[in-house]
Amino acid sequence: MKKISADYIFTGEGDLKKDLVIVADDLGRIVQIDPASAHDPSAVEKFPGLICPGFINTHCHLELSHMLGKVDTGTGLIPFIKNVVQHRDIPQEEILKAIADQDMAMYENGIVAVGDISNKSDTFETKANSPIRYYTFVEMFDFLFDGMTQTEYDKYKAVYDLLEQNEKDDFRAVPHAPYSVSENLFKKINELNPVAGTVSIHNQETPEENLLFLEKTGGFVDFYNGFNIPLEHFQSIGKRSIHHAIAHMDPEQKTLFVHNTTCVPEDLKAAMEWSENTYWVTNPNANLFIENRLPNYQYFRDAGCRLTIGTDSLTSNWQLSILEEIKTIRQFQSYVPLAELLRWATKNGAEALGFDDTLGTFDVGKKPGILNINLSDKGDLSIDSKVNRII
Hints:
By secondary structure, the protein is of the alpha/beta class. It has two domains: 2-51 and 376-389, no CATH class; 55-359, Alpha-Beta Barrel (TIM Barrel), CATH 3.20.20.140. The protein contains 13 helices and 14 strands. The strands form three sheets. It has a six-stranded mixed sheet, with no helix packed on it. A four-stranded parallel sheet has the order 5-6-7-8. Helix 4 (146-164) packs parallel to helix 5 and helix 12 packs across helix 13. The radius of gyration is 21 Å and the shape is globular. The termini are close together.
């Protein structure tokens, strides 16, 4: 048995607490949580700073780990996408090594579970042997063009089928984004997925996305024309893009709306009225990397949204670390309390992926991982705060 304490304890919910002892067995399973007064101090391992459950990364593209440093920052989403498309001829051994290295880096950064986007099967071997618990989202898109739907669907269905052969995997087929998935492909994705599960969709990452659906104007029109993809059939709906997404997705699924950089209160209200199973993934470092902006987190707090945190990929980030994402929010929107951000990164993330049976909180019987984070003299995160994995 291990008896562990710290200056502050975050159990997965509520505020930061003092004078608690976490008792865990040698496998990391929580046995009990007691007042510090119930234990002989000499039998307790006391850490400086904060102890919390392991982090949940609800949005990552592990298969893009070889892209670190290859794409310019601050270009906006559409030039970013064009830059990504240009980096295709990478040796497979380099791709696989980067995947394995970053899987281990996430583990060392205190991440215990990941919602991972897969367009290919490159990550499957690493994930099958990882200490991290993965939920794989097989992402599909056809650039709004019905003429490509069946070909693209068949390609991604082959990836989906590989996962289906292993009954231990948690996975679903998911649409990429409102601006890249036709109504026909949305339908095929819904038919492929069982009722109970979690899906994701990139949402409102740039103002250009809303312009496409409001007026059929903006950068996405030029983007599709530049790739000779016809948009004659596409009709704007006079509403922001999230309305197109919820009109074609299954409200019975837990749905992760990812990025949400340009969301306004009306968007949040529409999605939450559509389904009680909505979750919102914020990727602050990726938002700054691509668009030089962050969501307004007060909108989400006022609406009672369940927020989670993701890293996105090394195409759009400098590292895969949930702690660094939390630091960024504390730096730019410090009105969000640290305990609330930790809840986004632990309890909310575990619930969103359906992993709260074992992860997310220091509840008796769970094996959530136990992390230690050093804090400043004021009891807050600092630029020097780092994760020390205890279990």
